[in-house]
Amino acid sequence: MGTNLESAFHLSQLAHPLLKNSEGASLVFMSSVAGVASVSFGSGAMNQLTKNLACEWAKDNIRVNSVAPWFTTTPLVESHLEDKKFEESVIGRTPMRRVGKAEEVASLTAFLCMPASSYITGQTVCVDGGMSVHGFTFP
């Protein structure tokens, strides 16, 4: 297939023995708010993989979670956000009225890898300024 989901699955299977040998491992997938909210693109397959592996690997003391960002200021989305009409539509559907910052996604990801989150597994956490509560469809 060659998809991101397939790659994530294969890489996680390869990493499993190493994670199992640690004293408490954490695997964090990068997903998308498109797998959580009603948008006209994306699917929730990565989020379901997160849940399945969390249940399967809990016995091995491995936690598995997903981070699901909405539009975040990165080189990947710069060209889209240069279209002011598009940017306004994204911001208009985001209760916090702005695009996310990369460090906001990174800080959640880091937290999910720390002992402070040791009882969190199987979760998809949206970093979306409230968009997943609001919903969005592209013009």
UniProtKB/TrEMBL annotation:
The keyword NADP applies. It comes from the Eukaryota. Transmembrane segments: none annotated. It holds the Pfam family adh_short_C2. InterPro entries: NAD(P)-bd_dom_sf, SDR_fam, TR. The keyword Phosphoprotein does not apply. Keywords: NADP, Oxidoreductase. GO terms for molecular function: oxidoreductase activity. Belongs to the short-chain dehydrogenases/reductases (SDR) family. SDR65C subfamily. This is Tropinone reductase. The lineage of its organism: Eukaryota, Viridiplantae, Streptophyta, Embryophyta, Tracheophyta.
